[in-house]
């Protein structure tokens, strides 16, 4: 069975860009030595924010932060991925699509766990992020079960955290040194969690068919309605962002390319772009 992983993982290597949005300007750097995933895997969904605003609430000075994040992220897509908004240069497609192995997938899970551990640790140790504790989207316990299951089921040895996971975890670990670093962290938090809540579920189904004899991993089971879970966390992000200045909001937006690179490098295990 030939598995066209390229249909699932769309990678892009965008150049430095200067974006104009809503009458303001902000710069972001998106050059990377590794491709980073965009449309299908990452969290920026193709529709605008579904946050419900009560009419009795005061009118916000800025649009919803998730709408702004989406606008920036869509520009990191290629024209093929986002015909109306994509601006990134499309990468050359390999002549023979890469077929991932069970060890590739196991490495992806191990590195994903390393990043989730850091994200949860940051949330649990910062009072300004306490609304995200026990949100229902945490994945560390589920990933631990899946890694142990794969090793036992397929007689695999658990690998150490790879370069991609280690680098991204270290980047996140040192991200919040002051309160005004929280907007940057929220960009990574949102993109990483929602990547798996959105397109990541489709990837999980494909990996299940290809590598796991149809078994669905705990990683892709949230125990409640996924759309309701997403809406709840999105509303919490919007509530937090109401406190931010324009400068803080732009700091959040400008972290998008870095979030794509961090998550995309880990996804690279599944299409041959990241060494183990």
Automatic annotation (TrEMBL):
Gene3D superfamilies: Heme oxygenase-like. The keyword Transcription does not apply. GO terms for biological process: photosynthesis. CDD domains: HemeO. Its main location: plastid. Residues 223-250 form a coiled coil. GO terms for molecular function: metal ion binding; oxidoreductase activity. It is found in: Plastid, Chloroplast. GO terms for cellular component: chloroplast. Residues 1-17 form the signal peptide. Keywords: Chloroplast, Coiled coil, Heme, Iron, Metal-binding, Oxidoreductase, Photosynthesis, Plastid, Signal, Transit peptide. This is Heme oxygenase. The lineage of its organism: Eukaryota, Sar, Stramenopiles, Ochrophyta, Bacillariophyta.
